[in-house]
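> @MW can you paste both from yesterday?
MW: sure, first one:
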Amino acid sequence: MLFLENLNHSFTTIEVIVMVLYGAFILLLTLFGSDLLARYIRADKRTRGDPAYMVFFIISCAMLGYGLYLFPAFLNYFLKSDFEASQMNLAWIPPLQYIIMLSIIVSIGYVCLLILLKGKKILLYSIGLFGILTVIYMFVWMVLCASDPANIKYVIISSPTMIPVILVIFGFSIIDFLGIVFILVVKLSPQREVRRKVLLGILGIIIAGVGGAIEIIVRGKEGYDQNWWYVYGTIIELIGFLIMRYFFLSIPSYDEFSWKSGMKELHVIIAETGISLYYQSFAEIAAAELHGDIRVTASIPEDESRPNTDLVAGGLVGIKGMLSEISGERGKLENIEIGEKSLIFKQGKVVLCLLLADENLGVYHTILEELVEKIEKSHPDLENFNGDTRKLHIQPIVEEVFGIKPKESNNK
């Protein structure tokens, strides 16, 4: 009640406009973050660990976090004097803003590094620990400011005590931006249309960043509540996030990013006998790429050409059967690492599909499961297969499920 009685702040026209824009901003960020998060939740559990899903999951959390950040920002920018008139301590608000900002920036950066720094756990954990310690550092300052408002002088941007915070914000911001761009555009190498949408979404991030920078610069000057650039900066930031939301959500599925470019070979065989029903090559693969795993170097040395399709199909089903027997998980083995590649299995009642790919992505398991189901449904007599492949119609099913035409195919 004491605060309400002293809420006699005479807001300028510019402040009123910016407050309305902040309300729209919070709504936009909440919807954007919720939409991205809903896509992640609806996805197959096996695909959630794929790089594209991880990146968009952390972006969704960042959008929701930024919306949360705007609440204390709103209090600090527009209602601070009213709270102070009620003799209420708001000195803890700026440290809280830094805590939310650091949590967002550090989380995005850590996920990017988690994808890019595979095998470099010490470096990854060290960077992550430094970010966490900085968040804890600001939490301590928030407690100190809550207990004594005079401590707010140590939290202003020009204070030496803020140097580690500024370094973390600056460093992780670079990691965030370059990491997202590199992962979504270069590492995942999506198809042309998807890449275009990603780049336009990233353009939205840049526009939003420019608008945010204008707001910060204007707010740091005297009479900012009379400066129309405060409104322009907020509008530019809002437009940037609208562009980002439109293009990121226009991507039909995040599986579109990398699975097509990562496929090498597909084999469709009879599970029990290893008879090859269908073979398809998506890309050239050198024998050296399969070299390195002890299970394959004996039969696929670096300096020899690869065996023919029949030998490969028979050998693969033999390997799968042997490993299934050893592990006691007959019929459940789904992946074998072969040198730099991954061999993914999916078995039905009769058919076994094997996909050789760059990585063991969850989307491959889902697609192979669909492929097995459709092949067996359209070929109900495969249990009595007599070797006559002229009656098989696997090629159209493969093209339908994978959505691309192969480089070469071979119906046995």
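MW: second:
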Amino acid sequence: MASTTACTEAVPLVYPQEVKNDSARKAYKLKLLKDRPETLFADLYKSGEVSNLIFLTDQPLAWHAAISAHYPSVKKEGICNGWKIKIKEVEDPDTVMTTVNMYKNGTVMVQGNLTPFELDFLLIKERAQQEKSAPTDNNHTLPETDTTPTSGCPAADPEKKEPTGPEPDPQLDRAITDLKVKFIELERELVQLRELISQQPAQDTRVQQDSSAISTELTKLRQDRDSNRRELSTVRTEVRELQQDRESHMARLTALTEEVRELREERRSYRRELTALSEELQERERVKEQLDSHPDHNQNPVTPIESSQNPPTQQPPSTPSSISSPHANPTPRSPPITQMNTTPSPQTNTTPHPSRPAQQRGKPDIVILIDSNGKFIDENKLFPTHTVAKIWCPNTQHAMDLLSEQQLGSPSHIIIHTGSNDLRSQQERVSESLRGVIEKASTTFPNSRVVMSTLLPRKDLHPDTIHRINSNMSRDCILRPNVHLAHHPTLDINCLYDHVHLYKNTVPIFARTLKDVALNRDQSTPRRRSSPAQNPLRPERHPTGPPPRQHPWRQDHPHLLPHHAPLRSHQGSYDYPQARPEPLLSPGVPPQPQRRELHPDPLSYAQAVKRTAGPTLTTTTHVPEPTHTPPHDELRDIQQMLSLLCSHLIGQ
């Protein structure tokens, strides 16, 4: 069908909005055709396409002759109350191009290929005008047709005269006229129905295509529904498994809560024992002060240990001033003094560099085995008063190769931070590698203080993996008396500029923790940064100010503060009092090694209790003050060990 855009003369039939039903449309169209005769109109489908061309004329015979003369190949047929002209193609006479139906009432309907007729309409109209102006022939009859009429109606004869008779009834004439009009409309609708039937196969094909597409979409929707059902079943299974996991985790959490409650009870019992020990130490200190304040009752008593080591004939006469006054000079004539001169004093042992032999000065005192996170650590600034060697140690196997006396010598401190580069390949098997490093360091260097640093968090690994490795390392360190753990709780993944390495401004925090553990310092105590010459001397016995430690039992008992603080000369922040006399050792007491005197290993709980229960006061002039580590330092180590155990048990 040709569209209205290709038409140049046809006027489309546009119905107003008030015309809605078919009868009103027919009446409106008939009125429009009568008002504008011989004007070509385009009748439209509801879809907007052109169905046929139609116009009304008062001379259908003239138009019949004009159309037949205009086209070279036509076929004339008769229809009910009219004529049909089939316009054929010149090249193919068997193909009908356009069909023109002409009715006696003057209606002309064009169907088929409408574009050629629309273009030739003006020429055909001029020829029809010429046919109208030609003289009429009284003998003119209907044009002959080469075929019989297509309908059952007889062919109309315009020249046929009606028989004479009485005058016809006007009502009958009107009825006949109405019937004719209705027949014409029915015939037009029949033609349209035929065209619709001829177009039905194409519409059926389109409907079949649409139904096939709908079936395909329906199949896809069914498949999607089945897949969604399977996914829903999988999700329900996963939810059920998650609920089971949650229940198991809740059960484990309940068990862990009970364990934590038990651990807290044990911690309370340990605190009560520590309180009892501190009270016992306080009582012993009070007794000692009373004995020092009453020299008449403390002139000649001798402890069983010293009486067994020194015969009574060799005891020099003692004076009260030799015990009570720390500034009194020792008598040079007594034999124990001579023995003391051959034994290095504790003060001499606390000076690391001047007391070393000349051949050991070139060897490092402190060895740091560290991976790439130690790039920005300045070992000389970290330990300014010691000889330090920082060795790159990327993994645990390299640490095993370095842990030998041929490689490291005999250092007093060994700091190890490695294993992070093994996490990607070994995962939790790194715990076994670190256990081997701890065992080799402890057995190869039994007199050295070994510091094992925990693994730092990484962005590319789950934190639970690193936490379990650090927990295993903590348990392995506790089993070794000379191995200590350096934990870094303040460093998390926000301190990493990539997946592994620390920001440069967080390296001092990391290095400070290693130094505090290596020097056996309390990490909660603020650091003193003044030089040794500017630091005031510490009081000999009782400090006037509050104690620097934050332990509650030490704040309640300030007289239990240590007489000899742990090693502070590594920082350059403490000088021993020059007015304190050198403690005298009895002939039977062997000198302690210098490394053990600098950093005594923490004792076990049983050893600390046994050490505390032993004699803490000697009344001879040879030992004015005890030479062993003060008991409260041992108790501090015990408390730190218990706190570490509790924290790891709670964290598991």
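> thanks! The mean pLDDT is 72.
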